[in-house]
Amino acid sequence: MTKTGGRLAATCAMLLLTGCIAVGKIDRRAGTFDEQVADVSNNALLLNLARASHQEPVYFLALNQLSATGVTDFRAAPPQFYLGPNLPAIDKIATFGTGMGSAYLDNSTNTQFQVSVLGSKDFYNGLLAALDLRDVDLLLHQGYSRELIFYLVIEKARITVVTPPGAPESPVGPQVVYNDPTNPQSFALFQYYIKEAMEHGLTTETFEAPNDVASDTAAPGEASQTSALSIQAELCYDKSLALPADLPDIPKGSFCGDKPAVRRDDSDSTTTLDVTLHDKSFPLHDQQLKIEVTTRSIYEIYYYLGRIIHSGKAVELQPFNLPAETIPQEPLIDIRVNNGAVFPQAGCFTAISYEGDGFCVPREGARNTKRVFGILNALLALKQSVSDLPTTQNVRVQQ
């Protein structure tokens, strides 16, 4: 009887264990899915940057839906045994047999996810179109460094000397400076203008403008009372962000808040700025300058970052002594490339192997790189609509 009691106790213990296996931890499983989706998104973004560094096409996928099921079925019953005197040896042994005396553990899980290729006309219209200032305004008000956003979104700037009325025309023609680290001469001048933009408090502000042509009765600069209004954005200088010594360089009307909150949309004025730089080391000092900014598309941002990765020359953000903004000095993008080898995953926030090279975003530091990943994901999401998600392909992984 003692042996039989031990067998029954073991069977009961197995039944208790079965309850733990079958119930599981839903929060742990959901957390695992969350982490894996983040890994997939980060790897896909890094893969496209690796492609862009090789001047290869980039591709975009959408992970639309994840579902998973798991079944753990453990059945056990007491073993078959006999009681009584003078039993043959075979009947003294407790045995598991078929039917009610069987015991088995059956565990099965399957995971199903849906993936779409983002390749519709509408998606590529958004991907290839230059970012407008409303997109820039959204980013500038999410706590990102203005310098980080300027380097990402500005493709080039056109600088023109404004000739005062009655004065002879300036011999200096329009100058275009490119945000291209592979062109050292032009890029050095671009960095100088970024420095001046930061110290003068360059930012954006929004205003409301009518969607259609204003009525003839509306006063100049005022919106028609019968027009539907939409949100627009423009460049301006924020006094609270500028260095006090640079405020005299900015003409009246160029500060944020100087213009009415509701007015007509003059697209030419929303992307241009007037400023007079008094820096004696600057060749165009003490002359009124009109600066016109051209923004990049999301597509070009990928290839801009790809060129930086390929060149191996870091674009360092500078710690300007600004009254309302602190910027740590660190690279705009920090992606390590290990030629012909794979990085250990433990030291990387995300890492991939592409064409025999390892690409790694360091786990420690690389704060701007992680911010850039978030910005790119946000911009891609802003350019997607329901029509960009075609009929999905189902992929099932079963274990």
The structure class reads: alpha+beta
Fraction of residues in β-strands:
15-25%
Counting copies of identical and different chains, the oligomeric state is: single chain
SSE string: HHEEHHHEEHEEHEEHEEEHE
Spatial separation of the terminal alpha carbons: 42 Å
Radius of gyration computed on alpha carbons: 32 Å
Summed over residues and divided by their number, the pLDDT gives a mean of: 81
| SS element count, helices | 9
Question: Within the largest sheet, what's the order of strands?
Answer: 4-3-8-7
Task: Find the count of extended strands (DSSP E, 2+ residues).
Answer: 12
Percent helix range: 25-40%
Shape: elongated
Low-confidence stretches: 6-11, 13-23, 390-395
Largest sheet: 4 strands, antiparallel
Can you walk me through this structure?
This protein is 31% helix and 24% strand. The protein has helices at 2-23, 26-53, 121-128, 133-140, 146-153, 184-199, 267-270, 298-311, 367-382, and strands at 61-75, 104-117, 154-161, 175-178, 202-210, 229-237, 272-276, 288-295, 336-338, 348-354, 357-362, 393-398. The longest helix has 28 residues, at 26-53. It is elongated and about 130 Å long.
Topology:
Blueprint lengths: L1 H22 L2 H28 L7 E15 L28 E14 L3 H8 L4 H8 L5 H8 E8 L13 E4 L5 H16 L2 E9 L18 E9 L29 H4 L1 E5 L11 E8 L2 H14 L24 E3 L9 E7 L2 E6 L4 H16 L10 E6 L1
Antiparallel strand pairs: 1-2, 2-12, 3-4, 3-8, 5-6, 7-8, 9-11, 10-11
